[in-house]
UniProtKB/TrEMBL annotation:
PROSITE patterns: GH26 (PS51764)
This protein's UniProt keywords: Glycosidase, Hydrolase
GH26 domain boundaries: 188-491
Name of the protein: Glycosyl hydrolase
Active site per the UniProt annotation: E318, E431
Organism: Tepidibacter hydrothermalis
Record InterPro entries: GH, GH26_dom, Glyco_hydro_26
Length: 499
């Protein structure tokens, strides 16, 4: 073969490779038009890469378009029934950008399809424990009106270096008209549990037709001195207790858990992934997914397994409230971070062969901020990771400006009905209570006892017997059932129905 023929063959090969590459690029950037609706109405359309799939399983909250490298989420928020506005929504949603972990690459206002749009592009470092971590972000908030906004959030595992990777999607977004949608929910069979834990689960959550009561009393289960004296006044023994822990704790509270078990009590063990000693908590979720808390979590799992009796384990409750530093409010408004942490801890327990844990997933009844990207359903890790759905709703009273007195039914009728539509699992009220500021606490208790029996899927109710203090350490919300003789009497009379 002479040199001329050799060069021609090489040229043909190069042209073929370039042609194939161009075909792949063309294929990757071929688009379909998607038409659908959010929140039961407000028809919209946008273009997305053909390679991606559609997920409408949370259709009344969001639409998701995804492939292995990218996820696109579309939300609709209507603020006409509260004090929020589209502008305050944008400002509040993007406060996370001030966090040093987030590198802002683009922040500008523009106009697309006759709507004002705020465009933000940022990145964070890769998390070593998350497979194909999507750490490159673009969000676009479309202002439809003073009280209405759409949000597109794009997450990518690869750097979005060229604007066409996201501008085509965002620039094609249009609002058309109204329609309707309903969310469907899935069912789940329970997981592997040891015999004692399975019997506990069946007795109190699957086959239990009579509500059981619990209490949070901060001296128990370390000591039962005060609780025993309170129970004597009430003529009732609380079967369920609550124990809170954080990363500032020494680890699994073996002595207290054994003390509870030896006193025939069961513990809702709550681990909140934060420090209580004024450290910066806004990086911890990332640190967990980088493996920096593996020693703590593995040791925790091993000690739970060693305990070997039933544990109701609640990880990062009230995650849809911005008072919790593990909320997505602090993490790129990306609820996947919460779910990744939840699943990561679950995986650690599983790898340590823990078979005595019932997983309790527990949002707050009010999402704050009340934006669709922060809706509690976005934090749901999936049926296989949850055994019990926790409900939390307080009558916080009127100590603080802007708060309102809420009776029991006002809180729990809509909450219960919504959860029943979305979940096919047993419920428990993990914590609740009534303040004494703003109304008649005794009447509230009486109404609660008269109505809670109708919520058949609530198997356990736990009263939070404590006080929330204001910044000057004055009692702001007194939830104690033993606040005075009248409240003790009301609770004692109500509990007689559950002897």
């Amino acid at each position: 073969m002479n040199i001329r023929k050799f060069l021609i063959i090489i040229l043909i090969l190069i042209i073929s490779i370039v042609s194939i590459s161009n075909f792949k690029i063309y294929k990757n950037y071929a688009y379909d038009e998607y038409v659908d609706y959010v929140d039961g109405n407000n028809l919209y359309t946008f273009k997305y890469p053909k390679r991606m799939k559609i997920d409408k399983s949370l259709g009344n909250i969001k639409t998701v378009v995804y492939d292995k490298d990218m996820k696109i989420e579309i939300y609709h928020d209507d603020f006409k029934d509260n004090i929020s506005s589209s502008l305050s929504y944008i400002n509040y949603s993007n406060k996370f950008a001030n966090n040093k972990n987030h590198i802002i690459e683009l922040d500008k206002n523009l106009k697309i399809n006759n709507m004002k749009v705020h465009l933000l592009k940022w990145r964070r470092k890769k998390l070593s424990k998350v497979k194909n971590d999507k750490n490159y972000y673009v969000s676009a908030e479309f202002i439809k009106s003073e009280t209405e906004a759409y949000t597109i959030i794009i997450k990518s595992s690869k750097a979005l270096k060229h604007p066409r990777q996201y501008i085509k999607i965002i620039g094609s977004f249009k609002v058309i008209s109204d329609n309707k949608d309903l969310r469907t929910c899935d069912t789940l069979e329970n997981k592997n549990l040891n015999e004692e834990t399975m019997l506990f689960y069946k007795k109190y959550f699957l086959k239990n037709d009579e509500l059981k009561w619990g209490i949070f009393e901060n001296t128990a289960p370390e000591s039962f001195d005060f609780l025993n004296s309170l129970e004597k006044k009430l003529d009732y023994t609380f079967k369920f207790l609550v124990k809170y822990q954080s990363f500032s704790s020494e680890g699994f509270p073996m002595r207290e858990m054994l003390n509870a078990y030896n006193n025939d009590r069961f513990v809702l063990l709550t681990l909140q992934t934060m420090h209580l000693d004024n450290k910066d908590n806004t990086t911890i979720m990332y640190s967990i997914l980088d493996g920096k808390y593996d020693d703590f979590l593995n040791d925790y799992a091993k000690k739970i397994k060693e305990f070997n009796h039933p544990v109701m384990f609640r990880l990062n409750n009230e995650m849809n409230g911005d008072w919790c530093t593990y909320s997505s409010y602090y993490y790129s408004k990306d609820t996947d971070i919460f779910k990744d942490v939840y699943k990561y801890v679950y995986k650690i327990f599983k790898s340590n062969k823990v078979e005595n844990v019932l997983w309790v997933w527990n949002p707050h009844d009010n999402s704050f901020p009340d934006f669709k990207w922060n809706n509690y359903l976005n934090y749901y890790p999936g049926d296989e990771y949850v055994d019990i759905i926790g409900l939390t709703g307080y009558n916080a009273g009127t100590y603080y400006e802007g708060e309102k007195w809420r009776n029991f039914n006002e809180i729990y009728v809509p909450l219960y009905n919504e959860y029943i539509r979305n979940f096919n699992k047993p419920f428990m009220i993990t914590e609740f209570g009534c303040n004494s500021v703003g109304g008649d606490k005794v009447n509230w208790m009486n109404e609660m006892f008269s109505n809670i029996k109708y919520f058949k899927n609530i198997k356990v109710a736990i009263w939070w017997n404590g006080i929330d203090w204001d910044q000057n350490m004055n009692p702001a919300r007194t939830y104690r059932l033993d606040e005075n003789e009248k409240t003790i009497e009301a609770f004692r009379e109500g509990l007689k129905k559950y002897e």
